[in-house]
Amino acid sequence: MASALINVPAKAKRGDIIEIKTLMSHIMETGYRHMASGELVPRDIITSFTCRFNGSEIFRADLFPAIAANPFITFFTTATESGKFEFEWIGDQGFSETASASITVE
Amino acid sequence: MRFAGAIAVALLIAGSAFAAEIPQAERRSGYDFMKPDTKAMQDEDTANPGMLWVLDGESLWKRKLGAANKACADCHDDARTSMKGVAARYPAFDKAAARPVDLEQRINSCRSNHQQATPLPFESRELLALTAFVARQSRGARIETSSDPQLAPFIEKGRELYLQRQGQLNLGCTNCHDDNWDKRLAGSAITQGHPTGYPLYRLEWQSLGSLQRRLRACITGIRAQAYDYGAPELVELELYLMSRARGMAVEAPAVRP
């Protein structure tokens, strides 16, 4: 039941600096913990986050085991034209999620 | 003389009962004790990780399951209207069980009776998601749990447990949450212990959790044997805490450090 929460302003003026906020549901299991039986809990983290705007990459982050569960990633960008933000999270054990949000720039 | 003594004892008990309760005007949610960045997490729905469970709960609400092949929505329709204010009144008295049940137990009894599906385990992602989704519809509603007269004996039992010293540290809930709520325990604020935001996201847990999980953690903290999930004692304690917090606004799903 992976799900994402995205906060992108619906409208902005050309040249405005806008904040993009993303929250992805993920346990971010470090791979360093042991079960009661002594076995290692296999690592299960998001390893990469990418944001594309109208097809071109504007932000990328690599994630590591020390990052908390349900990673909240925010960044700033300049509003240049109307279009679509596409977000992608890739991780261990075949994890892959996408989300998108549109903005109108006037 | 003996009669006068009995009155004196009764007055003493009544007096201590009043002394234990925090006056309405001084009641503060755990939210007030948090740092601005944690408050900001709770305040904005797209930054509040608890909302991830609410989203899951919304899809579960509409999913048909069990032998009856019914979804919650088939009986209760749109939760935005049907579940509004419901969490502010739980734990509530259940006629069939002849005792109070909390929101998780109500959801599970609905599952087994009406959907004819297996109950969800306590603290499972699905049960937390459904509870969070239902509780979310009561955000801002005033807690009014104690208005049902059938609940009175159970509230009293919960209050006794709240006052009872126990565990190797020999502490009752009241020793921290009534007597010392303006102080700190190690680096952390001691709050008044009002359950206004459950189920809530604790940064320490890295997850959403129920009030029962919180109570069990507190009981383990005073080095007493914690009650099992779903134990009548825990529900009575939940009930007393809600009656103690009456009039306060529901914040679910809240964020706590």
Explained architecture:
The complex is a heterodimer of chains A (106) and B (257). Chain A has 106 residues and is mostly beta strands. Chain A has strands at residues 4-7, 11-12, 17-24, 46-53, 56-62, 72-78, 83-91, 96-105. Helix content of chain A is 0%, strand content 52%. Chain B has one domain (28-256): Cytochrome Bc1 Complex, Chain D, domain 2, CATH 1.10.760. Chain B has 11 helices and 7 strands. In chain B, strand 1 and strand 2 (99-101) form a beta hairpin. In chain B, 35% of the residues are buried. The chains are: A mainly beta (106), B mainly alpha (257). Chain A binds chain B through residues 1, 3, 5-7, 21, 23, 25, 27-28, 68-70, 72, and chain B through 41, 44-47, 49, 51-52, 55-56, 59, 125, 129, 203, 206-207.
Structural class of chain B: mainly alpha
Elements of chain B, N to C (H/E): HHHHHEEHHHHEEEEHHE
**Rg of chain A, Å, rounded:** 16 Å
- Which percent range describes the beta-strand content of chain A? over 45%
Q: Give the helix level of chain B as a range of percent.
A: 40-55%
**Rough shape of chain B?**
globular
- Just name the CATH architecture of chain B: Orthogonal Bundle
**Total number of beta strands of chain B:** 7
**Total domain units of chain B:** 1
* CATH architecture field of chain A: Sandwich
Q: Shape of chain A from CA axes?
A: elongated
Largest sheet: number of strands, sense, barrel closure of chain B = 3 strands, mixed
For this entry, give a set of tags.
heterodimer, A: 106 residues, mainly beta, Immunoglobulin-like, 5-stranded mixed β-sheet, B: 257 residues, 7 strands
